[in-house]
């Protein structure tokens, strides 16, 4: 599909929609269970069930100065099935002393003769073979010695370093200078990250979540450091009489736990002083301690209080205390992994993660209960574990302070991404890791739906019932749904013939979501509700879509009773295609189905109901009677349904009329995405100019009002919304913005050494390259060509992206293509060229110029790319695959006929392009006349401030 130049805003929007301070990657992936890492383990060969571990006795000696470690381990196990071998996990990076390996029969302390020891090729397995079979019911102990390397990457045991100010006269908690000379000292630490299967990198073990047994652990440390472990320190012993630098810390026996929850940290970090009363700290169970480098303690001074508050909320929710004596929370300098190390009783964060709200803390605390204390039996249920943690951590944050860190965007950030992904013809682009993440996100939304429809009290009591009697044990995903079912039946929140399993499985076993359509019979005061697969991408030819059905709760709010607090389910669609609703309001009053996005599905109505909603929303006194989430949903659903071909664009555009008065950022955020979607399809048409005038009319008042009312300490959402509106208007040619950008850019052009660095903020570069002079654009091109090796490469990449993706004038793009492709300028790599092709697909000015360049220079380009098939394929894809009109189809078809048989590896690409363009042309033929008619009417009755815009 084609992209409008303004579609570059989609990148900005994806960030703007997130809770403040999070990146998209962090928000979606940063939760502790790494599904992309756990997913390959789902099909992993499990260890034989012949022997079951009952305990570990582990001695570890990390040698910080050598970046290595040694150790020994005794593993006790019970023979459950007759066998002549013991199979353990041991990573290839771990050296095991196969000569000094003993197996003891525990009932008589006799040694078992070993036939041989094997390391299985290409598998992290160590197999010990015996001459005779082991006796069923008897306990055995394997005693092994091992050694390995400590790596910098966060897998198994890893090391880190940080610098801290040293001040002989002392410094304050923030590390500011008082007296004396301050020098930076280097400090070292060693820590672990075992999730999901990295324990095998450190010691031989049964490295599967279902094996939960106690550990007796001793760890050697330098006297200058201390060790934090899953449990409290029991005693400290001398290592050897002659070693004055090291000691052994012996820790209390752990509760039964999985290997992936094992963790320790050897460091000289300091405990952060508590802000609460000492007696309160003594009474607190578990005891909470915060650790950080001295220079950083001021930044995490309130973390203990926040952990206590979140912990109390979660203990109230679960109805049971966390069964730990202590909980250490660490701000680890230099810790680069996006997910905290959530060992049981020891949570390790990167420093920046501890400076935000309650969500981060709450989700790691949830994993202390659900993950460590009660554990998924196998990785196939990890997404259920993660989904519950995601839902409860958001719920906890909202209950504590209203979820200030979300700025009201939870769960919309997740929801919109789900709507988008599952409405594609090929969700996830067949990327397995993405599938795991989106399945988890959808499961989280289904949990939220159940919390609404079963009722919060029933839902909580069901989860409490689920964890009862599973302490220190494991669970399957179905165990959660069965516990919720029992409670829902007990509380009469679900009919006896229905189960939560049925509801949930209808959602999480499909990589799809439904659309609900409501057609009212106004005379009979009734409605017919149908469900079917929701698809946005064309063609709508998904196999077996007619067989896909969901359990859908029907929650209805009517205009005569605008009670959004009443979320009772009127009726369940029990995997049926159609249901009837009766006793609806009169013909002049609207209804809203699925208010507040209770379920993760869009809703369509007949035209009359949509127009009743549009009229109601335009009245100031009535609009605010509909909550923000529901206003956003109505707008989002209308535009996406129109985009998908399920609703007239005239009706969808009517739903935007209230935006003239709307100032809530949650309602505005999806607007930019929706505008972008339309822009992609009308970019080359005559309707595009009228659409831009509409967009300018929509956004200019919002932006100028936000500028006039700007305050120094305003809410972050206002700054974000203003920035988003400004970026869009800049690209649309808003004169004040262009002039500001050109003034900033001129300082760079006038600088004596322009290649030394870029003094211009990124927000100014694209407007200048799009609307500015040839001289300004050429200046940017020379900065790329002359870019010094010493500077950060990402700055050059950004310049290159904007040089190609922003201009609307073909001569600028032609100049870039000539230099890179025809002249084969040595300053541009193949990766640069691929990036340019990708950026040119952002709008019709880019891909149509690229098409003409290809058509006019066919022979020369073929010669250039003769041995560079990947570039050739990329070029054909970007130059031919994005047209959306009959004119574009004719152009591409003519090229195909003219050069048939010459496309080589790209033959299938242009054939696919022609097929897609034909489909998009149908969309244009059906929708452009409707859009143009509505825009003509709108522009005739609304003043357009075009004098404020270029072009």
From TrEMBL:
Its main location: membrane. One of its GO terms (molecular function) is zinc ion binding. Residues 310-507 form the Peptidase M1 membrane alanine aminopeptidase domain. Residues 52-260 form the Aminopeptidase N-like N-terminal domain. CDD domains: M1_APN-Q_like. It comes from the Eukaryota. Its cofactor is Zn(2+). It is found in: Cell membrane. GO terms for biological process: proteolysis. Binds 1 zinc ion per subunit. The keyword Protease applies. The active site is at residue 364. Pfam families: ERAP1_C (PF11838), Peptidase_M1 (PF01433), Peptidase_M1_N (PF17900). The keyword Calcium does not apply. Residues 590-918 form the ERAP1-like C-terminal domain. Keywords: Aminopeptidase, Glycoprotein, GPI-anchor, Hydrolase, Lipoprotein, Membrane, Metal-binding, Metalloprotease, Protease, Signal, Zinc. Residues 1-23 form the signal peptide. Its EC number is 3.4.11.-. GO terms for cellular component: cytoplasm; extracellular space; plasma membrane; side of membrane. Belongs to the peptidase M1 family. This is Aminopeptidase. It comes from Anopheles culicifacies. The lineage of its organism: Eukaryota, Metazoa, Ecdysozoa, Arthropoda, Hexapoda.
